[in-house]
Design a protein that fits this description.
With 241 residues, this protein is an alpha/beta fold. Helices cover 45% and strands 20% of the residues. The chain contains eight helices and nine strands. The protein has helices at 4-13, 39-64, 104-119, 127-132, 162-165, 168-185, 189-202, 213-226; strands spanning 17-22, 25-29, 79-81, 87-92, 97-102, 123-126, 137-144, 153-160, 239-240. α1 (4-13) packs antiparallel against α2. The longest helix has 26 residues, at 39-64.
Length: 241
Amino acid sequence: NRLLTPLTEQILIFKGTVDKYMGDCVMAFWNAPLDDPSHGKNACKAALDMLREVDKLNTKLKQEYKGEQGLFNPLKIGIGINTGECVVGNMGSEQRFDYSVLGDSVNLAARFEGQSKSYGVDIIIGGDTAKLVSELAIVEIDRIRVKGKTESVTIFALIGDESIAVSSEFVTFCRNHEEMMTRYRNQDWVNALNYLGLCEQQSVFFGTKVRGLYGLFNARIRRFQKDPPVKPGRTWDGIFE
């Protein structure tokens, strides 16, 4: 309850609708039941503030467990955000129903949340969401094909708000990150690793928001150096399944 209460508060502050709690997970949606022209931005702003609330709670918990060796483990969350058409309304049975959302775009948001741990980033957003929040600090992190789908989707890490997006640290970081991704997709593994090292150093400016991303790409690139994703001389779409 101490975790979900402040997280829920941020959803409500930014005009979100709480759908349900599933164990330690909270599901929410925007733009229903009332229209919200800024639904993408509000969802992202809520997500960023949710991370700040977790940091505050961890500070309190650390104080409470001070002196009690080994009892404090910081809470960590991953967030997935996607934008798209879906069905919204009262769903369930004649005996019980919930006001909820249903559809492929909803399922994809849940997949993004699950992938946040794999990619070592706090918030993953889909391409359609990224188009709505171009003024925020976001970087493309991969093209993936999720299980059960034939089409690929582009995923982004949400790192910060407008002030972070215009900071010199983020601008430099973003440029090096884009260079790394270009080299990676061109199978230029050596230069990709060089830019990866720069990105890893610069990512400390943004706390934990991309904490594990470069470890994942480092391991992936070194694996591809030994076993290329396609035969030499052939093009590669860079899609990870």
